[in-house]
């Protein structure tokens, strides 16, 4: 559902007055609740349109006219409000499918009305909500429905949830039938390497090192996985451990990724005289094996990282001196800052990404001379986040992809204010920036135990 990310982008970049009514629906005579954004860009809804076609098929028909709506700050009961709204318009609601996950939920539904039928998809995840629905093509051979009394133009709104993150990700595919762990053979170190979806991963490099029993000699070997994701290597009797990596090209750059050991311990070893399996899986995010709970370094995660640096008010200490004046209308303390990474296209493994949203409260603005947030010449603050120990913070563990980054402050009065961004400290002038990562120089997974993806730096100011 990559199209929904652009929908979220449009919403997050808009400034909606508090208490303002939402837009009117193009499918039913009703008005959406506050915060709704109707998206019409074809590229933005391309993949979501595919999911909507599936929903229409599940309802036994196909779409004739569709509509896509996003909320970036939905109410907790937005879906229920929407269901009540369409029922008040005379539609009968029928749930076709529902998927509840720890990080979101999705519902497929059908609506039968006096003059037309509709089908749709409702998704809530990471604090955002998305509605995709369409009018169904009448089924041939059935008698037309009796016309119903005209509905009032201001019929109860088909309320949609307030802005929530991207749709819930699909469940990882189960390992393919060919993904079989090899049989243990005395004298061999063997194993299976899977991709991010649990399928056999061919061409992964496996590095085996250990100590022989007879001479106590340290030795190492390297091999590659076959088409079925397995490897098998004859080694002298001894104790061995392994690590695996996979190298691929993405956005014109060559990246190498460490595979996650199935045991959860990168130091797991086997006795080759008896034989043993050391298995791995490719992960785009999550703590690296061996990293403890509470780890915060960018190299502690399988995902990529952004160093998010605030220019400050005044900004001369961190960015170009032309940003040193306190910005009129700067987001006051207590404003909620929403940082949204919106995927563009597929992730490095070919899967569809989803928006990633961070929120935190802004540090207070101090009067001139108000230490520690300002300097004596103009007031302001030097940290954007209320709990930031420094002027920057890390956003870690983003699955490698290409993203559009936007930052919006929701002020105490409910209005929204886009913050300015830049990829250098002398050009912090943009409403959004494109985030792309590059690999470490001369990175060799055979002899290094961390990293592989350079941390990217992004600058932000009021």
* SS-based class: mainly beta
**Strand count:** 25
- Uncertain segments of ≥5 residues (pLDDT<50)? 1-20, 141-177, 371-377
Main sheet: strands, sense, barrel: 6 strands, antiparallel
Q: Output the number of helix runs.
A: 3
| Estimated helix fraction | under 10%
Helix and strand pattern: HEHEHEEEEEEEEEEEEEEEEEEEEEEE
Q: What is the domain total for the residues?
A: 3
Alpha-carbon distance between the termini? 32 Å
The fraction of residues in strands falls at 25-35%
Q: Over all CA atoms, what is the radius of gyration?
A: 27 Å
Report mean pLDDT, rounded to a whole number.
79
Main sheet strand line-up: 1-2-6-5-4-3
Shape: flat
Biased composition (Pro residues): 162-172
Signal peptide: 1-20
Biased composition (Low complexity): 145-161
Organism: Deinococcus humi
Could you explain the architecture of this structure?
With 462 residues, this protein is mostly beta strands. It folds into three domains: 3-136, no CATH class; 188-281, Sandwich (Immunoglobulin-like), CATH 2.60.40.1120; 300-461, no CATH class. The protein is 8% helix and 34% strand. A six-stranded antiparallel sheet has the order 1-2-6-5-4-3, sandwiched between helices. Strands 7, 10, 13, 15 and 16 form a five-stranded mixed sheet that branches. A hairpin with a 5-residue loop joins strand 8 (205-212) and strand 9 (218-224). 44% of the residues are buried. Residues 145-178 are annotated as: Disordered. This is Carboxypeptidase regulatory-like domain-containing protein. Residues 145-161 have a biased composition (Low complexity). Residues 162-172 have a biased composition (Pro residues).
């Amino acid at each position: 559902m990559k199209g929904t990310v652009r929908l979220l982008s449009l919403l997050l970049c808009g400034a909606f007055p508090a208490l303002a009514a939402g837009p009117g629906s193009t499918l039913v005579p009703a008005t959406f609740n506050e915060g709704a954004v109707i998206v019409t860009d074809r590229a933005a809804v391309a993949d979501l349109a595919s999911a909507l076609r599936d929903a229409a098929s599940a309802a036994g028909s196909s779409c004739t006219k569709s509509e896509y709506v996003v909320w970036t700050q939905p109410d907790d009961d937005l879906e229920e409000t929407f269901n009540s709204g369409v029922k008040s318009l005379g539609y009968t609601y029928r749930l076709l499918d529902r998927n509840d996950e720890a990080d979101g939920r999705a519902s497929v539904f059908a609506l039968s009305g006096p003059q037309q039928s509709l089908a749709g998809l409702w998704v809530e995840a990471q604090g955002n909500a998305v509605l995709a629905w369409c009018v169904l093509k009448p089924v041939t051979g059935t008698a037309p429905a009796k016309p119903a009394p005209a509905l009032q133009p201001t019929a109860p709104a088909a309320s949609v949830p307030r802005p929530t993150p991207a749709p819930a990700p699909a469940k990882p595919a189960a390992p393919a039938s060919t993904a079989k762990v090899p049989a243990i053979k005395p004298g061999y170190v063997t194993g299976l390497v899977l991709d991010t979806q649990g399928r056999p991963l061919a061409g992964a490099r496996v590095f085996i090192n250990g100590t022989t029993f007879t001479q106590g000699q340290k030795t190492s070997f390297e091999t590659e996985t076959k088409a079925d994701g397995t490897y098998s290597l004859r080694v002298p009797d001894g104790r061995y451990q392994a690590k695996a990596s996979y190298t691929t090209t993405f956005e014109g750059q060559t990246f190498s990724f460490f595979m996650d050991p199935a045991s959860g311990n990168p130091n797991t070893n086997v006795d080759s005289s008896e034989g043993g399996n050391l298995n791995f899986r490719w992960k785009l995010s999550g703590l690296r094996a061996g990293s403890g709970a509470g780890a915060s370094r960018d190299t502690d995660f399988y995902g990529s990282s952004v160093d998010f640096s605030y220019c400050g008010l005044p900004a001369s200490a961190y960015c170009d001196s032309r940003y040193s004046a306190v910005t009129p209308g700067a987001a006051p303390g207590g404003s909620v800052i929403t940082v949204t990474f919106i995927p563009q296209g597929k992730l490095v493994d070919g899967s569809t990404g989803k928006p990633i949203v961070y929120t935190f409260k802004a540090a207070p603005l101090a009067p001139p001379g108000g230490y520690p947030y300002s300097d004596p010449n103009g007031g302001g603050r030097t940290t954007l986040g209320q709990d930031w120990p420094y002027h920057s913070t890390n956003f870690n563990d983003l699955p490698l992809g290409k993203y559009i980054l936007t930052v919006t402050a929701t002020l105490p009065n409910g209005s929204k204010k886009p913050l300015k961004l830049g990829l250098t400290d002398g050009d912090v002038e943009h409403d959004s920036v494109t985030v792309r990562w590059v690999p470490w120089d001369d990175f060799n997974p055979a002899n290094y135990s961390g990293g592989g993806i350079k941390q990217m730096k992004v600058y932000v100011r009021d």
